[in-house]
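Module 6 notes. Inverse folding takes a fixed backbone as the condition and produces residue identities as the prediction. Think of it as a translation problem where the source language is geometry and the target language is the twenty amino acids. Below is one complete input and output pair. Work through it position by position during the lab.
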């Protein structure tokens, strides 16, 4: 079972999460004017990925709905996987364009799990992705999926996992308290944690990772086969 940890904001934090057991490390970069939790600059994202090397899978979350910016962020940071979690969805033309830039890069397409229509969307988009990420969705101005910290209906996740031919990572309010139940219910390829393995300020803003919670989350995930 793969353990994916988002959103890393420094080299030290990334390496600490890997030491704690993370298999995938996610770093978010954003276009100018956006205000995403735990966003890193382009230079910081590149430094994190350079430091990680092959110690973990490097996942870039480009917070933008502009195709050219997604490609630009990939070129400047050097990830293994690009995670599409906004209104922009993977498609044949994008796959061709991205693979021309880096033939080895993988596409992780987020699916906002809100009902049976999410199963249909997963089937529609899976042919243009290497992995799917299933996350809780509350519509926002950018069409973003995730970073909400709340679970959703895992039975829908299970239906998707059982009916697509690519690996599926599940997210949405997962932490040490519920990751084992989620794994046993869904049997995905991997599990993702952001909110419940983060330290927050008094207003609930995500500040940084709680390494001990990361360690516990990863240990529990790896204990489930």
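Target side of the pair, the amino acids:
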């Amino acid at each position: 079972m793969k353990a994916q940890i988002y959103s890393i904001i420094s080299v030290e934090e990334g390496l600490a999460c890997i030491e704690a057991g993370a298999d995938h490390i996610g770093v978010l970069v954003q276009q100018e004017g956006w205000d995403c939790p735990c966003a890193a600059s382009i230079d910081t994202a590149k430094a994190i990925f350079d430091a990680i090397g092959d110690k973990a899978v490097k996942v870039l979350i480009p917070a933008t709905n502009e195709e050219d910016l997604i490609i630009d962020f990939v070129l400047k940071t050097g990830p293994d996987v690009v995670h599409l979690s906004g209104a922009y969805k993977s498609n044949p033309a994008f796959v061709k364009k991205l693979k021309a830039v880096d033939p080895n890069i993988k596409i992780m397409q987020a699916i906002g799990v809100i009902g049976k229509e999410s199963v249909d969307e997963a089937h529609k988009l899976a042919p243009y992705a290497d992995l799917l990420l299933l996350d809780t969705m509350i519509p926002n101005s950018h069409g973003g999926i995730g970073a909400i910290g709340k679970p959703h209906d895992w039975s829908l996740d299970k239906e998707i996992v059982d009916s697509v031919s690519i690996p599926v990572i599940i997210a949405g309010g997962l932490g040490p308290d519920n990751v084992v139940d989620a794994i046993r219910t869904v049997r995905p390829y991997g599990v993702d944690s952001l909110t419940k393995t983060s330290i927050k300020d008094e207003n609930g803003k995500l500040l940084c990772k709680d390494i001990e919670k990361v360690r516990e989350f990863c240990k529990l995930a790896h204990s489930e086969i």
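Reference fact for the lab report: The chain has a mean pLDDT of 92.
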